[in-house]
Structure formats: structure tokens, C-alpha cells
């Protein structure tokens, strides 16, 4: 090959490399978002590899990546496996590859392996807003930033009625699934408004006082924690009730002496439950989920209502003693709980509302798994 040919070959090679670099740059398109913590973050659009600070973020991702919500998840915390095993097994039956996801543990723990996150070629890490302070104190945000891995905060727990829509919109932009996000947001708004539109005329003096027992019976020897004016406490207010906890303390949740509950004797009591029998053997909780049965739900509700002192409460005597799937407190599906609450508080006003039909429809329209099991219940009438 002569000098002229060598120069021509070199020019072609250089052009090929340049085009390859440009092509790579085009693939790695960026999107700039403001996350729920108010941080401006630049993220790769349609990332192929993401890490979840909590496994239960899959509840939200499944609404967008409907064909396979695990296709881009390379690492997570094992809370879905431990605290909602019914859902985990339901998804695993459809997507066996879920077992290939790396269990990274808590992002805020000293043993969290940044090296593993980097080795997974992670494009973005999603964390919960409720753990913002922990993330700052642990230094995980700065460490990931130095590694070139952006962190995005979402929120379906702290202020779900305020942050669910923007959180889904953020995910929709990052995942390049804006149409799916918008479709679900429309559905979400419609189902929230099915309750809002009817409670405005209810007078304050006609509203029931409602006590939410968070994780009722999870530890049989301990009671109780409840929600303040956030999360399920906020849902109580939006469903036309008066949340007992909002009157007692500010913030997300707080501990309560049962004697105070017995003294105040609220009109309605709602516990939360899930299948914690594997994580907490011996639990008294109502084991709601995709594998739950009506008989076992009724049995567990009777046991909770039969605890010392509880059977004398008017909520138990009047049949206004209920329980609901705990995971509604951490997912975009909380409008189903809102509808259940409204129907419990005002059965005549919401006689045409069917929360179960709503949840079944949600699965049919938006999720890659079908509906099964039991997700809320009331004390049997024989009590």
C-alpha cells in the first residue's frame, strides 16, 4: 500500500471512529428533571440499568414498563420479598428473572456496596424522599455523584396525594414512557375525584373520628403507632373523616398509648396489614395480599378486635372496625384505599362505588399481573 492509500485509509478510519462516537452520544440522550426533593438532576433518557432504593418501587415502575417492570432493574433492596411476599411471588411467576436482581440492602447503611452499584453499570439510582436526611447523612448522594451515577428522589409515601402525580411524570420522562404515565395519571385523578366530588357538602360535625393503627398486630406485644396528617391520615381526611392522629401530633406518624385510644373511643378504627408472617413469625396482623383468603382475614380481624380493652370500643361494637392492605401507603394505588375509606364512612352516599372493581380494573388496564387475593376487610357482623 502506497503513502496515498495509507492516508486515505487513515482518513476513513478516523471518520468511522468519529461517527461511532456521535452515534454513541445520540444513544445516550440526557433529560434534565427536578426531582421530588427539588434537586435538578441530569439523567440518561430511557436508561437500561437502574437501582431501586426500595424494591416496592416496582409498584410504580410496573405502571410504566408494563410488559416487564424488571427489564431495567439491576439492583434493589429486598423489602418487596420480605414485606410483600405475595406480590413478589406473583411477579416472579410471570418474570422468573426477578431472582437475578442484585440485593444491595439499604442505601443508607455502612455496608452498602458502592462498588457493586458501579460494577452493575448503573445509569440512575432512585431513592425515597422520606429517606432524604438519611441519604445526606450517609453521604450516598455525594459518593454516587462522584462515580457519575445520578440520584433521583421520588415520593409515594410521605405526601402521596401531593407527590404521586409528579413522581410518575418524572419516571415517565426518564423511562421515555410519558404516554403510559399520562394514561395512568388520568385514571388516578378520575378515581380520586370519584370521592372528592361528594364530600364537600359534609359538615364537620357529621364527620367520623377515625383512628388508623399502622401495622396493626405486626408485633403482638406492641401497640400502637398511627399517622399524623400525612399518608393514610391524609386519606382519612380526603375521604370525609377526621383523622385522630392529626389532632395529637404533627408529622408523619407517632406512637400512641392504647389507653388514650380507649379514652377517646373513636368512631372508626382502621388497621393496616400485609403478609408479614414470613418476616415476623407469630404476627397477629391481617395478612392481606395476592394470596390472602376471606376466611383468614375475618379470623385475624376478630383476633385484633378481641385484644384486651378493644372489644369495648364503639367502633368494634358498631362494626366500624376495619383493616386495609398496608402497601397502599407506599404505592400509586392508594386511591383504592381512599374509595374503601369513603364507603366505610358513608355507605349510603357511596353505595354505587366499588373499590374492588376499581382495583381489578387497575390490574386489567395497567399491570402485567392479574388480580387475586384480598386487600381490605371489615369485622364480621357476628362480632
From TrEMBL:
Pfam families: Peripla_BP_2. InterPro entries: ABC_Transporter_SBP, ABC_transptr_periplasmic_BD. The keyword GTP-binding does not apply. Residues 1-28 form the signal peptide. Coiled coil: none annotated. Gene3D superfamilies: Nitrogenase molybdenum iron protein domain (3.40.50.1980). The keyword Signal applies. Keywords: Signal. Residues 49-353 form the Fe/B12 periplasmic-binding domain. It comes from the Bacteria. This is ABC transporter substrate-binding protein. It comes from Kiloniella antarctica.
Amino acid at each position: 500500500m502506497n503513502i496515498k492509500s495509507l492516508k486515505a485509509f487513515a482518513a476513513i478510519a478516523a471518520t468511522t471512529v468519529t461517527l461511532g462516537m456521535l452515534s454513541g452520544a445520540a444513544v445516550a440522550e440526557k433529560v434534565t428533571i427536578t426531582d421530588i426533593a427539588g434537586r435538578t438532576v441530569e439523567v440518561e433518557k430511557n436508561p437500561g440499568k437502574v437501582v431501586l432504593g426500595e424494591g416496592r418501587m416496582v409498584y410504580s415502575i410496573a405502571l410504566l414498563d408494563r410488559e416487564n417492570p424488571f427489564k431495567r432493574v439491576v439492583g434493589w433492596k429486598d423489602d418487596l420479598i420480605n414485606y410483600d411476599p405475595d406480590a413478589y411471588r406473583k411477579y416472579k411467576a410471570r418474570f422468573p428473572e426477578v431472582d437475578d436482581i442484585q440485593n444491595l440492602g439499604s442505601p443508607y447503611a455502612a455496608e452498602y456496596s458502592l462498588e457493586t452499584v458501579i460494577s452493575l453499570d448503573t445509569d440512575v439510582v432512585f431513592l425515597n424522599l422520606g429517606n432524604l436526611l438519611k441519604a445526606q447523612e450517609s453521604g450516598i448522594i455525594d459518593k454516587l455523584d462522584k462515580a457519575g451515577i445520578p440520584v433521583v428522589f421520588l415520593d409515594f409515601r410521605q405526601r402521596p396525594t401531593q407527590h404521586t402525580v409528579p413522581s410518575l411524570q418524572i419516571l415517565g420522562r426518564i423511562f421515555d414512557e410519558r404516554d403510559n404515565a399520562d394514561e395512568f395519571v388520568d385514571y388516578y385523578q378520575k378515581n380520586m375525584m370519584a370521592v372528592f366530588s361528594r364530600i364537600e357538602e359534609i359538615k364537620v360535625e357529621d364527620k367520623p373520628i377515625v383512628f388508623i393503627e399502622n401495622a396493626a398486630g405486626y408485633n403482638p406485644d406492641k401497640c400502637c403507632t398511627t399517622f399524623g396528617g400525612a399518608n393514610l391520615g391524609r386519606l382519612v381526611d380526603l375521604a370525609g373523616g377526621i383523622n385522630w392522629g392529626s389532632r395529637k401530633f404533627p408529622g408523619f406518624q407517632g406512637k400512641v398509648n392504647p389507653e388514650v385510644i380507649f379514652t377517646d373511643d373513636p368512631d372508626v378504627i382502621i388497621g393496616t396489614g400485609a403478609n408479614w408472617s414470613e418476616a415476623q413469625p407469630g404476627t397477629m396482623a391481617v395478612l392481606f395480599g395476592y394470596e390472602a383468603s376471606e376466611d383468614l382475614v375475618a379470623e385475624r380481624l376478630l383476633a385484633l378486635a378481641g385484644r384486651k380493652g378493644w372489644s369495648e370500643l364503639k367502633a368494634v361494637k358498631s362494626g366500624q372496625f376495619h383493616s386495609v392492605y398496608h402497601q397502599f401507603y407506599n404505592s400509586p394505588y392508594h386511591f383504592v384505599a381512599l374509595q374503601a375509606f369513603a364507603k366505610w364512612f358513608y355507605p349510603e352516599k357511596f353505595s354505587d362505588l366499588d373499590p374492588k372493581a376499581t382495583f381489578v380494573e387497575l390490574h386489567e388496564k395497567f399491570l402485567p399481573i392479574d388480580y387475586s387475593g384480598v386487600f381490605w376487610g371489615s369485622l364480621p357482623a357476628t362480632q
